[in-house]
## 1
Amino acid sequence: MGNSNLQGRLFRGVNLKFALKNSRTLSLNWHSPVEIGTRAILPNGHVGLVVDISMGDGSSAQIEFPDPAPITSEQHLRAFKSTCLELGLLPWLHLFKLLPSALSEYTKERLESNTNLTSFLDAKSSKVLSSLLGKSMSLRALKGKLGEKHLNHLLSIGLLKKIKTEPYRAREFSPTSTPPEGLSKSLSKLLAILESLGSATLSELNLRGFNANQVNALIKRGLIEEKSIIPPKFTPLRSKFDKRVYSAPYSSLFERIHALSESANGSLIIISQNKPLLKELANYLAQMASKNILSITTDEKPENLYSNYFSAQAKSCVVLSQEAGFFLPAFSLEKIILLGNVDEPFFMLLSENLCKELSIPLYHLDISSKLFFLKDAAELDLEEPNLLVVQRAPGEILTKKAKELIERDSGKRVLFLVSKSGYSYGYCKQCNSFAHCPVCQNLLTLNKDLSQAYCTSCGFSSEALCPECNSKLLPMGFGVQRLEEEAKILLSSSENFEFSTNPQKDGLYDLVIVANADPILSVPRFNSLFNYLDYILRASRLSRSLTLVQTSEVSNPLLKGLSFVDMLKELLSEREKRSL
């Protein structure tokens, strides 16, 4: 990307190539220094991103550059473009889809009512439009009140109109003097935090328990000042590219991230598609870390996200981000960490390409063993889970041991897991077999009142009758609905119980019970045992202490007392060989 004869990145009398939201590009002349990755407001009012520069002649176009620094770098764009081309994607169309609105739009969009005639509308629309008379509301807030479809309808018929406000400003706060005597405890604490950090954005201060009123109180007293953020030129802390993989409970992963952040000389970017997980990590680090903690997620207000984005380019920090983290030229970027499940090949490939381009290490931390960078990993660490495996008798749903553990300390937060959805499998006594879907041949599932049979794979549904002989289907085995029914009957306290088929819940539990995951083992595939062990591993990562595993399979390898991690590593190695 860029002309090989133009290596300095700064030019005069140049032709700028802009990427646009519609995947097209536009070339315009410009006279002043500019960098690849800079965002611009073009003559037609649209947002463009400088993606290439060449020598050019002619008069300069009317272009505005609203940001204090580029929103990304040439290296980031090169890695992104090569990833898109490798997967057959349109780079610039995909880029604007991944950028948050604070970076893909120029100003905050607000809406106001375009009429005071609301009597012909439904009650909800009439109430909202009446409340907007003489004032405006943000697009985000109004979407929350009306819903996107309803909002777009009112815009299309002209009852709402969009208005533009001032563009976002990148700002943060820094101390100007020591706290005087008589300052309240909360304001003294706020000032002490700012002195230890040097400066912080409003969003970061919110994360640490302070609000805008407290910040304004210190500004009025002249103890802190608001200042604009002006980041320096992006320079990563180049070392060497390698991949490091860790699987452990979230508590251990958080501790590892904290240790990595404290030992780092530069910035860390932690990228996850799981917003609740990022929020939990942010709260954890805010209590522990000595560095600035900056959140760049869609949970942030656009104006706060904007300030955080450029603050991350101005000082060493820990950044918690969704997809926007792949474009952020963070200050002295040292490491990129992928946290949690990465379920899209695009992000797996992009993270690897980007770290290679920047010559920095890539970490993947997850509770699962389905980690994507096992091949050629410089380091692989799987923490041994704390399991208690018990034999479950045929027809039994909860074993005596499960009941014991729950009743021992009532009030525990308990997660019950079973790999089967619905109430149970459908069994035909006449045919002496489980009923199979007539469309895809998978086993049929019964609903809770046993009146319907359905297929969880293709969606087929019918009365609870055998497709072969038309006999009534009987319940056999149990799914999550039957497990919930049984637990509430047998156990005295159930207000802290949660039930799920997938060990991917948020938060931690005092006890996790895998009531039945044996159906995973029964699937005739070469990786059935691996999938089973991974299910158990993910379940164990959600427990603060013990995970109870029930099984009716006498041949279950967990009953043999073998090392869980040793079995898993052997299967991971086998899976890697098969994927070659």
Note: The chain has a mean pLDDT of 86.
## 2
Amino acid sequence: MSGERQNSDSPTVSAATIIAAEQPNQIPPHSQAKCRQKSLQVATGFRVARRDARKPTSSQSTTDAAIAIGYRSLSPKGAPTASNPGAANTPAIRPTAPLHAVSNSRNDSRAIAPAMLGTIRAANGPNVRIRLRYQRGPSMSGADVTPGPRSPGMPEGSGAIDADRPDGDRGGSEGAYESTTMTAYDVDRNRVWHHAPEALPHDGGGISDMAVVALAGAVVLAVWSSSLAIGLVLGAAAVCVLGAAGCRWRPIVVLVVLLVAGGAVRSDHAWNGLAADRLGAYVGWARLVDDPKPFPSSTRVVFDIEGERFELWSRGRAQQQRIDGWRGGDVVAVSGDREPLDTERARRVASQHVVGEFILDWAGDIRDGSPVDRASNQVRSTIERGASWMPVPYGPLFRGLVIGDDRDQPAAMIDRFRASGLSHLTAVSGQNVSFLLAACGPILVRLRPRSRWVVTVALISWFVALTRFEPSILRAGAMAVLSATAYMNGRERSPVRLLSLAVLALVIIDPLLVWSVGFWLSVGATAGVCAVGPVIARRLERIGVLAVPLGITLGAQVGVALPSLLVFGRLPLVSIPANLLAVPVAGAVMLYGMPAALIAGMVPIAAPVVMLPALLGTKWVDAVAVIGARVEPEPPWVWIGWAIVLIALMVIVAVSSRSGKNRGRHDDPSSDR
């Protein structure tokens, strides 16, 4: 009796062991569990186990716990549930059969052709990284195990699994799973069909995301410098960064040097191309590059004449009325003089490839442009007809939200959107592209992968042409094409990586984009949303549902802070609440507005009904801009406000981090974590 009492009081003997010794094939009911206890310690352990089974704590309500419950049908011992609390007293779950195991009947002749390029097939099995991930099992599925002796002919890092050794370098769910796999399938322990390599290759050819970011930064700096010598130095620095990141593959090193040096050469060639080759009188056809841009006292038009771009400033009222009917892509018969630009003006319009000014004498006939230009102009005209039902201030704003057409917006509206930090809503970007693809999603999902990719790229290209190839939409379109390509190939790419690749490709193709303010505002906002926004949102989990939108808004403000301060000299404080209130509604207008405007333009009688939701959303966005412009403080109060926001954010982050550490310290995690 004394020996039995001593064993029951010993902390090294679990309650499940005592019960298993008394009734090996039966778990006692709730009442019997209480009466059979021989010490207060064991009784308390049973009560805690039942409580955790019925009401798990935050640390126990994890994905691994949910996965463990999935083993209930495969394990005779089950898993802790509210209907079976006694299962919580069993030892760690060790399934009798694995959820996934390597098949011994794999044959290339019976391999199933993949449904999507880049996916696995029966002949090659899953990727090493994916295989190891899904063959581990849950983290609570067994005790520690260690790799056993390596048989002859097996590479280092692999070996037999010895489940009898409780302590070792390899343990937890991975070792327990491999042990049960070999036992269930009667596999020789000295023969490992799929051994794990010592170091898994990085997804992406060994180049990390930060290395791609560094490469894009080196190319941008080389393009900005326009110097081959600086480009070679930056290329060597990029090679060193890649080497430090573990990438020493010779073709990649050569490609990095070529990209950086080639960017510098391309930039120098682009700047030399800004000098006009032919000046003087001209009579002939000129193609409009973009829609005419009205200003308070003039209208600006950019012509493409014999492969060179010239800007026209029309200041006469009669001439302005005639020019207002022109559209991008139209071909116009003109007569006038081509003159060079002064140095300051040439730098300001360099990103638009404008080489001179055109002094118009007269304009004659108009011809339609290319088929793409005609299709884009027809869609824009249909949307304009559909939006004409709206009152004057809101129709142009609606067109700006949907397709970035801000030609007819009043100057007061433009000023209040800038003052409230909402001017980005009228510049088409990735949000517009996302909503376009979402609207076409029901059609795209019915296509085969290759056809889906072709249609997706065609849609993106058409939308880029529809919005007149603005720098922001070029960035968004490039990222969307890269994302669609990665999806078709079965590859996952982080947004930061996609952004870096898009910037790298665009500045190589068009080096003058480096001098575009709109391009850097778009890149900065995207980088802030993708890299900074999620980090802030995780730190702000204590504020509930506002954590994600507030984190994204603050991330975007961090991204655009530098270009906004350098170019405009201001960073609106009211942009934080203004974006929280306006962006969701503006997104709904973008998603609903394009199909609604097309229907209203083709069926004018239905315009009042179809366009009413879009009108209400547009009014809401404008009302937020009006209030934001009125309450925006003047310097230095705006900087004091930003300091308060920064201090409050730091306090919230510190409290959140401290709370997370306390939860991790005091909660009762699983024993095998």
Note: The first helix runs from residue 2 to 9.
## 3
Amino acid sequence: MTDNHVLLYRLAELMIEHEQHILPVDLLFDDEQIGDFVKSIQIDSPYQQMLLEGVLTESVREEKLYVSFTVEGYFHFVLGEVIFTKAKGKNAEYLKELSEKIQLNGIREGIENCLNKDISIGDSSRLIELIDHGGEMLNLIVKPLTNLFLNNKIIQKTKTKEEAIIDHVSFVISELFSNSTDNDIKAINEILKYLDKNEKNELCAIIYKKVNEFVEPVNLKSALLLTKSIGYIDINERELKLDKLTNLNFAELVEDNYRFVNEIAIQFYHLANYDKAADYFEKALEISLKVHGESNPITLDNYHYYGQVWQEKGEYLKAIEIFNKSLEVCLKNYDELHSTTATSHNNLGLALHFIGETDQALDELEKSLEITLVLFGRSHSKTAISYNNLGLIWKNKYDYRRAIDFFNMSLDILLKVVGEIHTWTGRTYGNLGSAWREIGEHKKALDFMEKALNITLQVHGELHRGTYISYYNLGEVMVDLEDYEKALEFHSKSLEIRIKIHGDLHTNTLNSYKKLAMLCNEVGDDDISILYYEKAININTHTRGKVNSETGNLYEKLGEILHDKREYKKAIENYENALLICFELNGDTHIKAATLLNNLGSAWYDLKNIEKSFDFYEKALTIDLKVNGDNHPSTGIIYNNIGNIYRDKKDITNAQYFYKKAHQIFLNALGKDHEHTKLLLKKLKDINDI
């Protein structure tokens, strides 16, 4: 040791002996090891050097001179060295006794640093023993256990860095759970919280995967940890494992029951099994109301989760009802200026915007912002999120410039508060890119979207929702620029990540399939387009049921592509599916029904079945006349189609009548130079020549 090191080491040692973190200087004068250092007034003496460098500080109390470490963290570090030396050859019991008997501020942190030194030399035995002791000792193990997971030098390196980390985590988990107790579960939960807070997402994912291999659901605590791990295992195994966990019965604390049921609901939500998610969130809410009461923040959080499930199910009115209930409880039990009230206004506003009530949504989000500004001020991440959400509403109101202003306000705060490399900073860059895209500023859009992607990759890695959204957004810009090859590349990457995260039967995967189907159709790859549309229909039917407008639209689009490929019977089958959904949702006099009846008429016409074709055209015309009247281009199209049938039947009089009706509509509505108008003029001339 250097003289400086000897001085600091001995000071820490004396502080442990006297159980004081500040010592009288005259106590040190007679110390054999450092007395001469302290007495010396030479500027190059160790004691004077440490004072000059600010490592130590002298202070006067009641006319007596005292010395202490200036920086608390450095004091803890030196304490750790002292404890590590004294603990050589001793087991964890020694550290436990030290923690319990020595009444010195910083002793626990010193023990923590001692354990870190153990880990640095590849010895985890005392750490594992302390975890088994449980109690207050669990508060000391979070950082050492984190270092144990991060320090993979104690095993032989494998082929890749990732393999080395996985092997090392397996080793640590197997050691930890070799004689498993509730303390091991508590320790893992604490370290996962710590890693999540510090955005060590990849390590979290590996630990959760290994937990699923080593932990058995012997009680609610272990079952809860296993449930949390479900989102990290193979997508094809998740629902099966969840179903097994839901069949377990534990006669334990109701509070633990709530957490378990709520976590089950969250996992079903992530799997897009919204029916089961809604059931379990409802059960969790019932438990929370009994255990915590209506006004408890835990219950209010559950209202928010429950509302979001109904939002995902497309049941926006139900979601709004739940968010209104949450807001009602907040206003009843807290005043308006409360963070939970702000959250309720925020959730209600976002739900209202889904049903097109943008003015009401704006009102709710402005209330949320107003509360947030009072509670947290302008320079706070919550304020930045409020500005971001307001930007989304203005974007949906097509006021892109105002949306950009709000996104910029959000970004300015985030860069100051959380920095460039943060989830919300990346998300705000992405929103700015989307807004600039809407006003045709594609270079700016690309710049912001690329920043969003880079941040998301750094913070979360590739397998994250933000990453596939960034790839999707970049694909959309490429579509606008008509660079379809690049667009397909970005959208395919987005789909690949979505499938890895959510599986093939999820609403988020559906969005990519739809976009790729449209793109493949655009570039003329109809066979792949058909495959993607079929996938999209399967997903939408699985997650939302067959009778919904989205499924109907997908059947219609698939029918159109098959029609263009001259696969008329398959086209008819899809048009009929779309029509049945339309009738069930909207009745038989909706304009959508007219469009589908007209498409069916065209498909039967192309199959040379004139009678069926005529029947569908007549039904389409009846609806169109009721809805649009006699001067609408869609009515003109049907008149034209009926005219074609009469022409083919050599009924010149009726053919002329319907062609003239169509021509007049196109002339009035579209003008003489429109292609429809010119085509009908040519048809009238040709038929007159017959």
Note: The chain has a mean pLDDT of 91.
